[in-house]
Write a structure and sequence with these properties.
InterPro entries: Acnase/IPM_dHydase_lsu_aba_1/3, Acoase/IPM_deHydtase_lsu_aba, Aconitase/3IPM_dehydase_swvl, Aconitase/IPM_isomerase, Aconitase_4Fe-4S_dom, Aconitase_B_HEAT-like_dom, Aconitase_B_HEAT-like_dom_sf, Aconitase_B_swivel
Keywords: Iron, Iron-sulfur, Metal-binding
Domain Aconitase B HEAT-like: 7-163
Low-confidence stretches: none
Pfam family, one: Aconitase
Strand content: 15-25%
Helix content: 25-40%
Radius of gyration: 28 Å
Largest sheet: 7 strands, mixed
Domain Aconitase B swivel: 177-406
Distance between the termini: 53 Å
Structural class: alpha/beta
């Protein structure tokens, strides 16, 4: 059977089973067969083959794109003749192929001696921005050799005509509203985790957004209002909380965006999204990738009484009242020049924050990538020509406040800033390019990152990146057919790209399923680093880390840079003393509760960096705090440690990197060895006193300061999804923090200890609790299932070496076996301890789930509806979040414990070594030299 026949069979299956169009082609072999049928003018499939070639072939660096570019070149040179594809049309098709093989062909033609093809090739090249060193090196060499056409191309680049000649964004944009949900809209609603396997198949994945009924409603709204764009809204909530999730934005664009090119299937852009409380920060970055618009509607405001005091409900939450309606079907107008939202002539709200010069550039260019590459291309051309590049793009916003010290994140951004003109340090609000030190990609977004890299024609990792890792943790639980199809292909691509991969395509080292965030935390060896990761929980306890969409991850891998504003910070310090029965997770939850109390219900963390003065807590344990900050809707988090603690944390990171080397994970570029060398350099700087641990200046300015009183924490604290709250907008948020006594005698159906929120200490706590219960009762009986998923294999190995794994294995009714991994997801649970493979497990919800309607107590991080547990017909599923000892005891009892039972169960166990720092972790403000890595 030919590849084409197989493709036709697949087309028929997709159409009959799913109602889908043909899947876009990325295979060189299949496209070669299609081209052969095009050349055969009498072939029965010639007409369809032409359509597939023109309209259904993926661009960039896919192998199919290489074959397509080569055939178009042959047509342009007259070596092949296709009646339907003239040389002019061939040039047009090349112009939509976004770099890689197409740019190589255009350069071949532009540099040829035949002026009839060189000039039109040059005109197409002037519109392209995805050029890499191999391409610019050819241009530079030809220019130096006196090539007049190349000089013309470079002059166009130097003037950034690829940007200036694009049409400006419309002054008036009509939108028709669609309330996608009430309350916060998680990206799980737009792109469910349990459908992660299909994200790279954009049309198929689009079927999972919200509901089929919602999709149809959006389509009907578009038909009813053909001159307006459908705007998806989070009513009384924030749009896109939880993660960036490029697939979520892709889905919104697929149903309510614009076609990016007639020759690139199912890649839409420029969606419009909005929320009463705006857009979650990392999701807004993803919207910028597509050139879309994100609006902060502010259409619900806090109600006040006649004295100006905020009116509160029975729970103490502010009562909201509607400032204006955005009910589904309302036609509004965005005035992009006045930067306001109107209903007819009535001004509703100022939306200036949505139309900064930088965001407008993304909209005009069709996305942020084109701006990033365009700036680099303009700089190259100007330098090659020896001219000064005209100011075309909005200059980087550089804010420097005289006499004001720097927060920790401001220091990191200043240290890593690229292309800054200011001679004085930059403060929050500045908008700059920065060098990215560490990059992480995970396995459910990884296939999309590969697509993004192909689309931007990148073929190898930037040499300026210190380290990068591709994980396999999100699909670790079940080695099913979907994982078998996607994961090896992903690992092979990333390994060839230059990334350290969890799975070795050559099969030399054991396949790892370590949680991405834990590995990134280990390979981050500098507290002044910037980390970009393809998951919202990229929140390292060394350096500052930003969760990002798959495309921004690709951009960081390809260029070693990112562009973003310097964020504001909120300072978090601690006072008082921890009680011996409290776990550090309780401190994390109490921080959220006390912050909301201190600021009358306002989440001051949202969109800002949480600078937590953690002091003497090692990076492994401190990660529990920084990881949680994603759920606080913070942009990022930074741990401030003292010198001694930081050295210990980096030494631990070194040892774990060495284990990766010993296992055979090192690559040809010696990336891991390079990280160890960087770690040694950082330790030397700390010990010499020349480069002490990162600390803010004592004159730094914060948006807010939160002081957490440890004396107030006397019970384990629970984050509750509050699934039955009468106010739908209050469900599935992280703002409901309650003490364990609230849940006296509440049944527990399942417990989960795992994901990125736990560390080795948590596993040791489980072991010690089992020993204590064994000593007290002789035997241990679980009255509810307990699922335990260690974060990394290193931790498992260390527990085995130290003896703690033995007690876990003794009471495990199931223990993972890498030689015979599960091939099907578990649907029923027994009342036993399950020792699962390292990875995300239940937290991800894409493979394993609790039984529908269960009440789950977990160390996980997510309160998304249906994520860990779906609803049943009788009862809503609940995923309540708490500490490891609370989870373990609850499964032994089959219910939530009393505070007395809890205290007895942890007596004698050292739950945490955390204590507030005894000294101020700040430094005197001194002039800071900006190091331009460029």
């Amino acid at each position: 059977m030919s590849l084409y026949t197989e493709y036709m069979d697949e087309i028929q299956t997709r159409k009959e089973d799913l109602g889908l169009n043909p899947k876009p082609i990325d295979s060189a072999e299949l496209l070669s067969e299609i081209i052969a049928q095009i050349k055969d003018t009498g072939h029965e499939y010639r007409a369809d083959s032409l359509k597939f070639f023109i309209y259904n072939t993926l661009p960039g660096t896919t192998s199919a794109a290489g074959v397509k570019a080569k055939f178009l070149k042959e047509i342009i040179l007259g070596e092949e003749s296709v009646e339907e594809i003239t040389p002019e049309f061939a040039f047009e098709l090349l112009s939509h192929m976004k770099g890689g093989p197409s740019v190589e062909v255009l350069l071949d033609l532009a540099l040829s001696d035949d002026e009839s093809v060189a000039k039109p090739a040059a005109e197409v090249l002037k519109t392209q921005v995805f050029l890499y060193e191999a391409d610019t090196d050819r241009l530079e060499a030809a220019y130096k050799a006196g090539n007049a056409i190349v000089k013309d191309i470079l002059e166009s680049y130097a003037n950034a005509e690829f940007f200036t000649k694009l049409p400006d964004i419309q002054e008036k944009i009509d939108v028709v509203t669609y309330i996608a949900a009430e309350g916060d809209i998680s990206t799980d609603l737009l792109s469910p985790g349990n459908q992660s396997h299909s994200r790279a198949d954009r049309e198929l994945h689009g079927l999972c957004m919200i509901t089929p009924e919602a999709q149809q409603e959006i389509v009907e709204l578009g038909k009813k209002h053909p001159n307006a764009k459908v705007m998806l809204i989070a009513e009384k909530g924030t749009m896109g909380v939880g993660s960036s999730r490029m697939s979520g934005v892709n889905n919104v664009a697929l149903w309510a965006g614009e076609e990016s090119s007639p020759y690139i299937p199912f890649v839409n852009n420029k969606p419009v999204v909005a929320g009463t409380n705006g857009i979650a920060p990392i999701f807004l970055t993803t919207v910028g990738v597509t050139g879309g618009i994100g609006l902060d509607l502010k259409n619900w405001v806090k109600k006040t009484d006649e004295n100006g005091e905020i009116v509160r409900d029975g729970n103490g939450d502010p009562v909201l009242e509607e400032a204006y309606s955005v009910a589904t079907g309302t036609v509004l107008t965005i005035d992009t020049k006045a930067k306001k939202l109107y209903n007819g002539d009535q001004e509703l709200v100022d939306v200036a924050d949505s139309f900064t010069p930088q965001k407008v550039e993304f909209m005009k260019a069709g996305g942020s990538y084109a701006v990033v590459f365009g700036k680099k291309l303009q700089t190259f051309a100007a330098e090659t020509l020896g001219v000064e590049a005209p100011v075309v793009y909005a200059p980087s916003k550089e804010i420097s406040n005289d006499g004001q010290g720097l927060t920790a994140v401001e220091k990191i951004f200043n240290r890593n800033a690229v292309g800054v003109t200011s001679k004085t340090p930059l403060h929050a609000g500045s908008d700059v390019r920065v060098k990215v030190n560490i990059v992480g990609s995970q396995d459910t977004t990884g296939p999309m990152t590969c697509q993004e890299l192909e689309a931007m024609a990148a073929s190898t990792i930037s040499t300026s990146v210190d380290g990068a890792f591709q994980s396999g943790c999100h699909t670790a639980s079940v080695w099913d057919n979907k994982a078998k199809a996607n994961t090896p292909k992903l690992m092979a691509f990333m390994n060839a790209f230059g990334v350290i991969t969890a799975r070795d395509p050559k099969g030399v080292y054991h396949s790892m399923t370590d949680v991405i965030h834990k590995v990134l935390n280990d390979i981050t060896v500098d507290d002044r680093a910037i980390i970009i990761g393809g998951d919202s929980h990229t929140r390292m306890s060394k350096g500052v880390a930003f969760g990002a969409d798959s495309g921004t991850v690709g951009l960081a891998l390809a260029t070693g840079e990112a562009t973003m504003p310097v964020p504001e910070s909120v300072k978090v310090t601690f006072k008082g003393n921890m009680k011996s029965h409290m776990d550090f997770r309780d401190v994390v939850h109490a921080t959220q509760a006390q912050m909301l109390k201190q600021f009358s219900g306002e989440n001051v963390f949202q969109g800002r960096v949480i600078e937590v003065h953690i002091g003497t807590l090692l990076a492994d344990q401190a990660f529990t705090f920084t990881d949680w900050t994603a759920e606080m809707k913070a942009k990022a988090s930074i741990c401030i440690s003292n010198d001694e603690t930081l050295v210990k944390s980096i030494e631990l990171a070194k040892s774990r990197i060495q284990i990766m080397i010993d296992k055979g994970m090192e690559n040809e570029a010696k990336t891991l060895a390079g990280l160890i060398a960087l770690a040694d350099e950082r330790i030397a700087g700390i010990k010499s006193g020349e480069q002490p641990a990162l600390a803010p200046d004592n004159t730094a300015k914060y948006y807010a300061e939160v002081v957490v009183d440890l004396d107030e924490i006397d019970q384990p604290m629970i984050a509750d999804p509050d699934v039955n709250n009468e106010d739908v907008s209050k469900r599935y948020t992280h703002d409901v923090i309650r003490p364990v006594s609230y849940y006296n005698d509440k049944p527990v159906d399942l417990g989960f200890v795992g994901s990125c929120m736990v560390h080795k200490g948590d596993m040791q706590i489980i072991a010690q609790m089992l020993r204590n219960m064994e000593a007290q009762n002789g035997t241990i009986e679980f009255k509810a299932p307990l699922v335990v998923a260690p974060p990394t294999y290193n931790i498992v190995d260390e527990l085995k070496a130290e003896g703690d794994w033995d007690i876990l294995a003794k009471y495990a009714g199931f223990q993972f076996d890498d030689d015979n991994p599960k091939e099907a997801a578990r649907t029923k649970y027994e009342n036993i301890l399950y020792l699962e493979r390292p990875g995300c497990n239940l937290c991800m919800g894409n493979q394993e789930k609790a039984e529908p309607g269960d009440t789950v107590i977990a160390t996980s991080t997510r309160l998304f509806q249906g994520r860990v547990v779906a609803d049943s017909d009788e009862k809503k599923g609940e995923s309540l979040l708490g500490s490891t000892p609370l989870v373990v005891l609850s499964t032994v009892l089959g219910r939530f414990p009393t505070i007395e039972e809890y205290k007895a169960s942890v007596e004698g166990i050292n739950l945490t070594d955390f204590a507030p720092p005894t000294e101020e972790l700040t430094t005197e403000a001194v002039p800071l030299k900006i190091v331009d890595p460029s």
